[in-house]
Write a structure and sequence with these properties.
The protein is α+β, with helices and mostly antiparallel strands. Helix content is 19%, strand content 31%. Strand 22, helix 8 and strand 23 form a beta-alpha-beta unit. The two termini are 50 Å apart.
Length: 678
């Protein structure tokens, strides 16, 4: 019997490589063949609508991993074994399958050997519609398509869900994203994008240090504090707090009404009074003078500033003379049932009442171009653009959420390309498929909810969610792990994660509140960092295990460098619970230490850096313990870690050259040296 890889429906079952993946597939499900063994799943309906929910079939008996939006802005992982465990707003579904082949070798008593392969479902964009997956209590797998505009309706959709299979889960996701990028033409794979140069330099962000109280004086104090410690950042993000804004709902002398702060709107593209000579003790005449001064005095190479996709959290102020030329108007968000069905968020909930000052989509490029050209003239090198997913709630009357997102995204990318060098754009709060699959140029995006220094139960969730989200995001952007504090109970935990994450390394320390010992492990004397080659992702044996709440699994994250591999091992158990998940046992009952195994084969594609003379063995160096082991590729060593502890392993292939056997190991004094060799 010939088994084809291309998915098909046979006798009411969705088949992949001879395996039944879904049963009870309805007759209205349509399968369209894609390239390289992939396919699209679609459906038909008798009634046109702007939102449909279609059942694909019953899913049972597979280990599964979901990436889903638990709130409007951000994804987290979910693990399970049946359709009922697939949450609303799932944007990636990966299944682990076993492929049986009959082998009669005359020796083995078991004539069936099992080979693991993987099945990937990606809900994507199809025309003006956006797709997500969800499960039901009856283990049905469903997909939801929605336009976000009651006037944009369909009764048939042919390519909303992409399905593919492969033997290597990382190659499967990579190849699938490349197939989709070529087929859809709305986004690009990370390999086809220009990578911003700031990623290779140590940075500082003002947010957790000052929040919206940021001003020139405290920025200078912070930069001087780093300089005094001998570890100066080379890129700076001036976060929220520099813009000229107004809140019509806050009355002087009256207490704050919770939620009104998010209705603050942008008045002008120029800086506020804090950054002008008219401000109290500004120390500079304007933003341009300030940026020139700090670049010269502190050796900064890149200065980014923050703004929201709509200008500010509440958009722009329509009555502002500076904003009128962009034809803004107040509109009121309409949230998707999927978002409301998971965890509601205070920002869109508040803006449902107070509205958003949205710029005419026909004028949005003019707005970005005016803003960015002004910033560039002031010496600003790039922008961090936040609150991007809010656009999905504003599509009514504008052709829907996908159409509006695409207009804003294209205008943003065109403006940043025109006004800044090196594609200097950081996207944030952008984990909806509308944005992900409209990303043609943007090459960096935040990969999880914020680092929250005052939330002890969020620390392990942050590291685990970035690693798993990077499975998808890392094929489209360089995942940004967010800032952290160098002087914090979890500083080493976060520092090691970023050292192996293939990402930017930046902190948000308050002036005088640094741990320079940790920083010097991450940062070279010239302010550069040694960044790994790929997005740091969970090892293959961790993909279907919950590293936060199962009480027994360690999280292992792998990456490659120029001449070696690296594995970071983290104990994320017992320090927090996933949102929307009820803990099955008290965190106090989690073992104080959890054990696992580390192997050279945890590093995918190690042969790519090993060279022709690799003999199959590896030298494995543990950074914290200082142990050095020689292992075959499929060998392993044991590791035991307490909660919120971690260990880093450099895995260096042993090369054989004539009579000489050697490997490359690096100085253990610096964590980042374990990450990369140039």
């Amino acid at each position: 019997m010939t088994i084809t890889a291309t998915p098909c429906v046979k006798d009411g079952c969705l088949m992949v490589r001879g395996k039944v993946v879904l049963t009870q597939v309805p007759n209205n499900i349509v399968v369209s063949q894609g390239s390289s063994g992939s396919a699209f799943l679609g459906a038909t309906s008798a009634i046109p609508s702007s939102r449909h929910v279609f059942t694909l079939g019953v899913l049972e008996g597979y280990k599964l991993l979901c990436l889903f939006r638990f709130k409007i802005w951000w994804m987290i992982p979910r693990y399970g074994e049946s359709g009922s465990e697939i949450p609303l707003e799932t944007q990636m579904l990966l299944l682990e399958a076993r492929e049986e082949s009959a082998i009669d070798d005359g020796i083995s008593s078991d004539s069936a050997t099992e080979n693991t392969f993987y099945i990937l479902f990606l809900p994507v964009l199809d025309g003006e519609f956006r797709t997500s997956l969800q499960g039901t209590p009856e283990n049905e797998l469903q997909f939801c398509v929605e336009s976000g505009d009651a006037n944009v309706q369909i009764s048939q959709i042919l390519e909303p869900v992409f399905i593919n299979s492969g033997d290597n889960p990382f190659e499967l996701i990579k190849n699938s994203i490349k197939i989709l990028g070529k087929h859809k033409g709305t986004f690009s794979h990370i390999e086809n994008k220009k990578i911003p140069a700031h990623l290779d330099w140590f940075g500082w962000c003002t947010w957790d240090a000052f929040y919206t109280e940021v001003n020139p004086q405290v920025i200078k104090q912070g930069l001087q504090s780093f300089s005094d410690g001998g570890c100066s950042p080379k890129f700076l993000i001036i976060d929220d707090g520099w813009q000229d804004t107004f809140n019509e709902f806050r009355k002087e002398g009256e207490p704050l009404v919770e939620g009104t702060q998010f209705a603050t709107r942008l008045v002008d593209i120029k800086e506020n009074s804090k950054f002008k000579s008219s401000g109290s003790d500004a120390g500079c005449n304007d933003l341009h003078e300030f940026i020139d001064m700090i670049k010269e005095k502190y050796g900064l190479k890149y200065v980014y500033v923050w703004h929201a996709l709509t200008g500010y959290w509440g958009g722009v102020l329509p009555s502002s003379e500076a904003m009128k030329k962009y034809n803004p108007k107040i509109v009121y968000p309409v949230q998707s049932p999927g978002n409301i069905g998971n965890m509601r968020d205070v920002i869109p909930d508040s803006l449902e009442e107070y509205g958003v000052g949205i710029i005419d989509p026909q004028k949005i490029f003019d707005f970005y171009n005016d803003l960015h050209s002004y910033l560039s003239s002031c010496g600003v090198d790039g922008v961090k653009v936040d609150a991007q997913n809010l656009i999905e709630t504003l599509g009514s009357g504008y052709g829907g959420r996908v159409s509006l997102t695409r207009q804003y995204q294209q205008a943003l990318e065109q403006s940043t390309s025109r006004n800044f060098k090196d594609n200097n754009l950081i996207c944030c709060m952008s984990h909806n498929s509308d944005s992900i699959y409209s990303s043609k140029k943007s090459a960096v995006a935040r990969a999880s909810e914020d680092f929250m220094p005052r939330e002890p139960t969020f620390q392990t969730l942050h590291v685990a969610s970035v690693a798993f989200n990077s499975l998808l995001l890392g094929e489209i952007v360089v995942p940004d792990w967010d800032m952290f504090h160098s002087k914090h109970d979890t500083a080493e935990f976060h520092g090691v994660a970023r050292a192996i994450g293939g990402c930017a390394v930046y902190v948000s320390d308050k002036p005088g509140n640094h741990d320079f010992e940790i920083l010097r492990r991450l940062v070279l004397p010239d302010g550069s960092i040694l960044r790994a080659r790929h997005a740091g992702r969970p090892t293959r044996d961790c993909l279907f295990r919950d590293p936060v709440m199962d009480g027994k699994s360690l999280l292992k994250i792998w990456n490659l460098n120029k001449l070696s591999g690296v594995v970071g091992v983290f104990n994320c158990q017992g320090a927090g619970n996933w949102p929307l998940e009820q803990a099955t046992k008290d965190m106090a009952t989690t073992p104080s230490s959890i054990s696992g195994k580390v192997s050279p084969c945890d590093v995918e594609f190690l042969e790519e850096v090993a060279g022709e003379n690799w003999n199959g063995d590896c030298a494995v160096y543990a950074f914290n313990s200082g142990s050095l082991s020689k292992l075959p590729n499929n060998g392993h060593i044991n590791v035991s870690l307490a909660t919120l502890k971690c260990e880093t392993y450099t895995i260096s292939p042993i090369r054989v050259s004539k009579s000489t056997t050697f490997c490359v190991l690096v100085n253990s004094l610096r964590v980042s040296n374990l990450m990369n060799l140039h």
